[in-house]
Write a structure and sequence with these properties.
The chain contains ten helices and eleven strands. With about 260 residues, the chain is α+β, with helices and mostly antiparallel strands. The protein has three domains: about 70 residues; about 50 residues; about 80 residues, no CATH class. A hairpin with a 6-residue loop joins strand 9 and strand 10. Helix 6 packs across helix 7. The longest helix has 15 residues. It is elongated. The N and C termini lie far apart (about 95 Å).
Length: about 260
């Protein structure tokens, strides 16, 4: 019996015997002793009625979850913790850079007391916007696009009506609109029924038709995703015809032109 240890069941207090190695294992891991699975289940599911230390509400909790201080909810626990261990925070008052009003400094270190003050302070005058455009033209040696001056593009639209109007007020000719010329192209139908993306393409397609040159519209290049404006039919060697109407107007368009010339 040297290897046997007598212990009591945690649930029913009945005396039971356990091998010494099992006894040491339970003691080391902090486990309880049970005489059966039924007693183990009953003890683990056994609940006790408690009273919340904050609001006085009665609630139930399993024996394993009972601690020194018990609360019915996390909010009650937070209320009591804030009462018992109040956090002393230093209140720093700063002055709004726009209206001069004193307000409490937040963690993100704002310069303005509200969004309205920030917008008023950051709003530029028409003279400042025109000056910025002129300085950018002098630096780039060309008229900048709206995307290159995102910080003032919205202000230009609100004050002058559009970005192009702001460029005109600064004394420069605006770039051709990428949105209107490239993506919202006006379609026109040629005499042979081909749909063209512009009036210029329409003139070229009609010239092919009047001179009896067999052609096909919008033909993919071999081994690439690019599409040619026309392909001349009836030739032993494939011949593609392009009208680069937006050359030197868009960097993306210019890259496409180089790739088309490479595969042609």
């Amino acid at each position: 019996m040297a290897n046997i240890k007598k212990v009591s069941c945690k649930n029913c207090k009945k005396l039971i015997y356990r091998k010494i190695r099992r006894f040491n294992e339970n003691i080391k891991l902090g486990w309880n002793f049970y005489c059966s699975k039924k007693c183990e289940y009953e003890h683990r599911t056994k609940r006790k009625k408690l009273k919340c230390e904050n609001c006085g509400k009665t609630f139930e909790r399993s024996l394993s979850q009972i601690s020194t201080h018990n609360y019915c909810s996390r909010s009650c626990a937070a209320i009591m913790n804030n009462k018992n261990y109040p956090k002393i925070r230093e209140v720093i008052m700063i002055t709004c850079a726009n209206c001069g009003k004193k307000y409490r400094k937040s963690t993100n270190n704002k310069k303005y007391c509200s969004i309205v003050c920030r917008k008023k302070a950051e709003q530029k005058t028409p003279e400042e916007l025109i000056k910025t455009i002129k300085e950018t033209v002098r630096k780039l040696k060309r008229v900048p696009s709206k995307r290159e001056l995102k910080n003032i593009s919205d202000s230009c639209r609100k004050i002058f009506g559009s970005w192009n109007n702001a460029v005109l007020m600064a004394g420069f000719l605006p770039n051709r609109s990428h949105s209107n010329r490239m993506y919202k192209r006006m379609e026109a139908k040629a005499e042979d029924g081909h749909l063209c993306d512009s009036v210029s393409e329409l003139l070229i397609d009609n010239w092919f038709y009047k001179n009896n040159i067999l052609h096909e519209k919008n033909v993919p290049y071999p081994e690439t995703h690019h599409v040619a404006d026309w392909k001349i039919l009836g030739e032993t060697k494939e011949k593609f015809v392009e009208y680069f109407g937006l050359a030197n107007d868009s960097p993306r368009y210019d890259r496409s032109v180089k790739e088309k010339k490479y595969y042609a």
